[in-house]
UniProtKB/TrEMBL annotation:
Protein name: Amidohydrolase/deacetylase family metallohydrolase
CDD domains: Met_dep_hydrolase_B
Pfam family, one: Amidohydro_1
Gene Ontology molecular function: any one: metal ion binding
Protein role: Esterase that catalyzes the deacetylation of acetyl-(R)-mandelate (in vitro). Can also hydrolyze acetyl glycolate, but with lower efficiency. Has very low N-acetyl-D-amino acid deacetylase activity with N-acetyl-D-serine and N-acetyl-D-threonine (in vitro). Theoretical substrate docking studies suggest that other N-acetylated amino acids may optimally occupy the active site and may in fact be the physiological substrates.
Residues marked Transition state stabilizer (site): R170
Organism, scientific name: Neorhizobium lilium
Domain of life: Bacteria
Keyword hit for Zinc: yes
Keywords: Hydrolase, Metal-binding, Zinc
Residue ranges occupied by any Amidohydrolase-related domain in the UniProt entry: 62-360
Family matches, as NCBIfam families: PRK09237.1
Amino acids binding Zn(2+) 1: H70, H72, K168, D284
Necessary cofactors: Zn(2+)
Amino acid sequence: MTSGDKAQPLLLTNVKPIAFGDGTTDATTDILIGADGKIAAIGSSLAAPSDALRVDGKGAWISPGWVDLHVHIWHGGTDISIRPSECGAERGVTTLVDAGSAGEANFHGFREYIIEPSRERIKAFLNLGSIGLVACNRVAELRDIRDIDLDRILECYAENSEHIVGIKVRASHVITGSWGVTPVKLGKKIAKILKVPMMVHVGEPPALYDEVLEILGPGDVVTHCFNGKAGSSIMEDEDLFQLADRCASEGIRLDIGHGGASFSFKVAEAAIARGLLPFSISTDLHGHSMNFPVWDLATTMSKLLSVGMPFDKVVNAVTHAPASVIKLSMENRLSVGERADFTIFDMIDADLEATDSNGDVSRLQRLFEPRYAVIGSEAITASRYIPRARRLVRHSHGLSWR
Ligand SMILES: [Zn+2]
């Protein structure tokens, strides 16, 4: 549902607020949003102007708009990215954070062709490597020091500081070869100079997950925190688990970053059972993870719920937690005069077969089902993604599922 060319007021009725900071009640309310996109009134049985569009929430939850802290949406500028519209408002997500698809050499295109025209709010971690993910995992962005231009990174940030929220480093031998942990140290140096967080992808060592944690500080983000890769899983090495647990308590943010290869039900379930919860839940959606095994943010949230993460913590992990990383205010989100930015969703009973990145299967009994994304005075109909059938694709290294 959209308001067409001319903005109209929007009346949301019968919605149940959650995660606005005042505790959760079962009471429903109405919210009137003016044509200017700002909240005009909150209360029961609100009268609306005659030209207002009406959306009946039918008792659904309404939360601050969901934030996906790790996606790849530099569509057309990288071979791996999807369009913002494929993982944004129509999936219930109002803020998308691109995790290093663009580097300093091509960030201007990302800004002009993706960030500026999109209806979703888009922020970005700038890749430490100049070229970003142009030909992802084929032309690696961090082979040696010639792939990093410190001066140009600083210039790029100065020109785009309203869009760039941090520095991204993929610390895995697929990208860095035997270069080890040095690019992480360089990334941390730049992040310190710019006073922004660094997001590090942990995967196939080197670098070791352990080494990465030793370099990061409070406010930095480890994505793929619950991966199940040999040499990088926090459940195969008790010392690494203890280190991750301590780092999390000291303010290093453990982010899910599901992706095609980086989320394990077994690791997540064991960590959560021991009290180590992820800070944020993100998808790492891109062209090779969307149809299998990720689908969307709501399904990823449902997966974390299924392995023991409490409902309110899951909601927090896609609202307040990622918002704090990108310095997006969550204060007074449900107050008259504030710009409307909401996700309306239900919890539904289901029996859905879902797969992690290791091919392990779980049956999800409860699903987050987005109904609308509300961006200003626009209510966009939302739903979970229905994956296309998987295809067996032939390429130079053999066969793989896509
Ligand atoms: Zn990624």
